[in-house]
Write a structure and sequence with these properties.
Elements lengths: L1 H13 L11 H7 L4 H15 L2 H6 L1 H11 L13 E8 L7 H9 L5 E5 L6 H8 L5 E5 L2 E5 L3 E6 L14 E8 L2 E9 L4 E3 L2 E3 L1 H15 L6 E6 L10 H4 L23 E6 L1 E8 L10 E7 L6
Helix pairs in contact: 1-3, 1-5, 6-7
């Protein structure tokens, strides 16, 4: 039985794309928590030792190898991002955050070039503007999302990623040009709809539709280099984010589980890039939000404008 469970765990890791999404989006649900299958292998290893089962121990090589192939590289030391690297911070600051000033100071402490925030409220916005003003003098706010930058911004505008089923006012995306010392890049900030785990499975249709709209916007972006920051309410393994992950690079190093802050189970706060490399991602200390902030290094390949 232990050997069979080990083989089944290995199969889920190696062939998770084969799990259908047609019923309750079970494939996406599995992929949301896919790294945790490694914990199943650890438990099975302990049971195999207790039972002194050589067959089970040999079988456990399969899930171990599959997990190492999928996630082992994320645990390796990151490469030097080079002199053209930006430090970017992504944080859903929570519309119930009672201390936005402390949250703002925590984000500035990471010495970022860019900070993207979601769930901005009208009452908290002036606090963030004041807290970020010295280190990040340029900013754009569209609806409940905002971008603060160390470098000048241009062409900032709202981004329509609203699913058709949402009828109330809803503005959770923006696009801006950032004039870095290494050239202009397009930066997108997005907050995709939440998903819910129900007895029927994973409710993610609005999230998936919004991801498709965002993916089309990125695909049509004229600037070569694009950086996407946002609470995407999905992991990079979740096929629901395929409209983005098939077009953009994800973090090469770091797990950085960001939600929920009290006991992080998954990284749903993402940093992705096109024509650039996200060399490393990590979480920052907890703030007054139910998410942990995520900081990443993005190595640019763009050249300065003539």
């Amino acid at each position: 039985m232990l050997a069979a469970l080990a083989g089944g765990t290995a199969g889920l890791l190696a062939f998770h794309r084969a799990v259908p999404n047609s019923i309750g989006r079970l494939g996406s649900l599995l992929e949301t928590f896919l790294p945790w299958l490694g914990l199943v292998a650890v438990v099975l290893f302990g049971l195999a030792l207790l039972r002194r089962s050589a067959t089970a121990l040999v079988a456990l090589l399969l899930p171990t190898a599959a997990w190492a192939y999928l996630f082992g590289g994320l645990l390796l030391p990151g490469a030097d991002p080079g002199s053209r690297a930006l430090v970017v911070v992504q944080h859903n600051v929570s519309d119930e955050n009672t201390d936005p000033a402390a949250t703002g100071r925590a984000l500035v402490a990471a010495a970022p070039d860019l900070v993207a925030v979601e769930e901005l409220t009208p009452s908290a916005l002036p606090v963030y503007e004041k807290t970020f003003a010295s280190a990040l003098p340029y900013h754009s706010v569209q609806g409940t999302v905002g971008l603060w930058s160390k470098h000048p911004l241009a062409d900032s505008r709202s981004l329509d990623i609203k699913p058709e089923g949402i009828t109330e006012p809803w503005n959770r995306g923006l696009r801006a040009t950032v004039r870095t010392p290494h050239g202009e890049i397009a930066v997108y900030v997005a907050h995709l709809p939440s998903v819910r785990i129900r007895p029927s499975g994973l409710a993610s249709s609005w999230r998936d539709e919004s991801a498709t709209r965002l993916g089309k916007a990125v695909a049509s972006e004229e600037l070569e280099t694009v950086v996407l920051l946002g609470d995407l309410n999905g992991t990079v393994d979740d096929r629901g984010l395929a409209p983005l992950t098939t077009r953009m690079n994800v973090a090469e190093r770091g797990l950085a589980f960001s939600f929920p802050a009290a006991f992080p189970l998954a990284r749903i706060d993402q940093v992705m890039a096109r024509s650039a490399t996200v060399t490393h991602v990590r979480t920052l200390p907890a703030t007054g939000s139910d998410h942990l902030p995520v900081a990443a290094q993005v190595a640019l390949t763009v050249s300065p404008a003539p």
